Amino acid sequence: MSTFIVKGALLAGLSIVIGAAGGYWFAQTHRTAIPAAAAEAQDNPKNPLYWYDPMYPQQKFDKPGPSPFMDMQLVPRYADAASDTAPLSIDPGLTQNLGLRLATVTRGALDPGTEVAGVLTLNERDVAVIQARAGGFVERVYARAPGDVLKANAPLADILVPEWAAAQEEFLALKRTGDASLLNAARQRLKLAGMPAALISQVERQSKVQTVQTLTSPIGGVLQTLEVREGMNVTAGQTLARVNGLSSVWLSLAVPESQAGSISEGQTVSARLPAFPGKMLSGTVSAVLPETNTDSRTLRVRIELANPQGQLRPGMTAQVQFKHSNEQTRLWVPSEALIRTGRRVIAIIAKDAGHYQPVEVEAGQENAGKTVVLRGLQEGQQVVSSGQFLIDSEASLKGIVATPLDNTGGQP
Predict the structure, then answer these.
(1) Domain boundaries, the chain
(2) Is the pTM of this model over 0.70?
């Protein structure tokens, strides 16, 4: 038993010695190979020119290491590789498998106009406020309620004003004397007491004291508020009713800020309402409000529509088309052909023999699925409109950057 234990101990010790010697030999060999590999890399003509991150190929680094942008190592770029702005080559047989579709850069006039949806609201400039001219009591309230549509001069309430009685009696007494100057002075005192001109004419014509004033709506429209009740006491200047006219209405729109630059006050529009199919209404832009909605990135635009028959009611919806007077031609591409990174806009130009070149472009107005190209492309060029993200990713992996705007030379 003791002999077996001794032999086992000897074998274990021998294994440790052999392992240590082998490890020392491997370490020395590997340590010697590192300088040799470094020297060989220096003599290799394919030394990296720089290192880059495929996700940000435009950023170059002078030594390898981890990318500051992504959780990955930098990729070397060698001297014999193609230029970083050279076209990307793809086998033409693979284009169908990649689902690539091409579109032509075309020149044409702007679309007839921008089309957005809106809601009808009351014209806040066409408002009449009815107030008590003097203190008194409400003797009668006519059958009215908020929301009623009134005609002009529709009666609302009868107000008894006791303080007018003495002034009217003095006026009638001076009328009997025939003194014109005194009569004019008495008439002026009646106006200062708050009597309307129509009531003064009635007193003068009938030679009878009139202490009851009938409040009427000065305009036709919708009764919004009615703050009178029979028997209540009113004071001078107290607001009793509010009427909003319906001779014209506002059409409130939320226009995307990308299209707001082509809209101005006085611009003509055409509106279609589901309530009146087949009927086209014409209006004008009365105001472009100064504030932008930060949540929806839209600008409020107000259109004024004539409403002579009173058929247009607040709350109705309408589809509005803005008519642009500018017919100048522009270069257009499908909006789907542009890659928007947030800092720049990229398009992929399709060249001959399966070559593709990413270029930086300057985009303009967008409308109806098309985008104006201000710089970067030329008429007749073919751009990738579907599958361009795959090409852009492949170009980034190979260190190919988009041609900057200054070098594209495409001036529409």
Answers:
(1) 88-110+328-408, 115-123+247-322, 132-241
(2) no
DSSP state string for 234-295: E-TT-EEEEEEE-SEEEEEEEEETTTGGG--TT-EEEEE-TTSTT-EEEEEEEEEEEEEETT
What is the structure's pLDDT at 113? 60
- In whole angstroms, give the CA distance from residue 180 to residue 175: 8
Task: Identify the three-state secondary structure at position 161.
Answer: coil
pLDDT of residue 324: 64
Max Cα–Cα distance, the chain, nearest Å: 158
Instruction: List the end-to-end C-alpha distance of the chain, in Å, as a whole number.
Output: 98
Angle between helices 164-177 and 197-206 (to 10 degrees): 50
What integer pLDDT is reported at residue 70 of this predicted model?
A: 76
Taken in order 252, 255, 259, 260, is the CA torsion positive or negative? positive
pLDDT in tens, 355-398: 888 888 888 877 777 888 888 888 889 888 887 667 766 666 55
Q: Distance between CA 110 and CA 326 in Å, rounded?
A: 8
| CA distances from residue 82 to 26, 79, 140, 166, 400 in whole angstroms, order as listed | 40, 8, 94, 105, 9
Instruction: Please give the structure tokens belonging to residue 348.
Output: 């992929």
Q: Which fold has domain 88-110+328-408?
A: 2.40.420
CB distance 202 to 190 below 8 Å: no
Assess if CATH 2.40.30.170 describes domain 115-123+247-322: yes
The CATH code of domain 132-241 reads: 2.40.50.100
**233-268: b or e for each residue (b if 16 or more CB lie within 10 Å)?**
ebeeeeebbbbbbbebbbbbbebeebbbebbeeebe
